[in-house]
Amino acid sequence: MSKTPLRARRNGDRGPAEVLLQRIERRTAHVSVIGLGYVGLPLAVEMAQAGFTVTGIDIDEARVRRLQRGDSYIQDVPTREVKALVKSGKLRATTDFSVLKKCDTVNICVPTPLSKQRDPDVSFIVAATEQVAKHFHRGMLVILESTTYPGTTDELVLPKLRQTGLEVGKDFFLAFSPERVDPGNPQFNTRNIPKVVGGVTETCTQVAVALYRQRLETVVPVSSTQVAEMVKLLENTFRSVNIGLVNELAMMCSRLGIDVWEVIGAAATKPFGFMPFYPGPGLGGHCIPIDPLYLSWKARASGFEARFIELADYINGQMPEHVVRLCSEALNRSGKALRGSRVLVLGVAYKADIDDVRESPSLDIMEKLREHGAKIEYHDPFVPSIAFAGKRMKSTALTPTTLRRFDCVVIATAHKGVSYSAVLRHARAIVDTRNALKGKRSNKVVRI
Ligand SMILES: NC(=O)c1ccc[n+]([C@@H]2O[C@H](COP(=O)([O-])OP(=O)(O)OC[C@H]3O[C@@H](n4cnc5c(N)ncnc54)[C@H](O)[C@@H]3O)[C@@H](O)[C@H]2O)c1
Q: Which of 39, 60, 288 to mutate to test the pocket of ligand 1 (most atoms within 8 A of CB)?
């Protein structure tokens, strides 16, 4: 992709693209981010650290108030950094969308959940786009970052912005750039994860690439918004399908009396052509359990059945029930039934060392155990309380005495700070869904 067409005209008739590009390169552009969650807040902070004046917009008043005080609510974003940026005036937060009138760029980072029927719920994208359209102006760059089905930017966002009478690629610029952030990952973050960008026109791509290049280490332009949208769905479908495969293998190995963890560990010694994925209690978080279904929905609408995606979703969805069966097996060894037993679920965050419980399979396991008549408590060093069975439940402290109080402990998330040797020493029966007790042999442990 060449930058020549934009640069060549710099000294003559400066169109909106040249003006915006210059503002971006001089970092005088006013940047905005809609949706200040796990994706939007780190991005807003990076852009402010690049030297842009950044305004974050969110409908959640409590979040906005905390940011205005310089207080971070996202684990990977240190309060110290937010405070410094707020103090210097580089970062602001508001619930007032009219600020968009003064913004040169806007990144949309709102949620994309599933509806009750497990179809894409793009209502947050639609609501955010309507706000952008309301305060739209010539020269604006709009980038959608929310994960969504291929075609969303062109079919949903573009028509709303075109209604303003402005022309894409000339008067305004529109692109899609998938967010790949991995909360809790100490090595990869918003800044050093390569950023894929696809614009509606080549100029749209150039302007969007220029914005990200001011701060992000690697930017990867692609030929269209649809390709950029599909990249993210390929990545997450790849994970979902491979996890589905090892989950099926784990259930198979359990029937055949083979240790699936040992099998995967040995297979992973192959230096080429194999990538290890691990079984677990089910998929969680706002991405892997949801995103592939955006793709299968879109494929279905075009008369194509995405069978790998549907099968992986089915198998991964069976895992909480499988864990409940393992729990029954563990209790059975000491002549106990699930009904009336006290079960401690260890870890409710959907993955290790984070505080996010969205779509967490632990909650599903807890609910199923409760339906079987078990008395449930949980421990999670990152999650002090959760909504469970219509009430607020607090995390139970993890001590030798409390561990001995339970008939069974289910290790559902392998947070690093937990002493699993203490769990092994004091718990009466254990279901280990994460191989947290790797290499430790004991009759009281049932592994996935
Ligand atoms: N969490 C992740 O690890 C991750 C990683 C990659 C991609 N994504 C994708 O990024 C998108 C955002 O996910 P997230 O985890 O940051 O969500 P989040 O729930 O943490 O944050 C979304 C924010 O958007 C706000 N919001 C909702 N509707 C709004 C509106 N109309 N206007 C303004 N603000 C609004 C919410 O109040 C919330 O603060 C999703 O599409 C998700 O699939 C998430």
A: 39
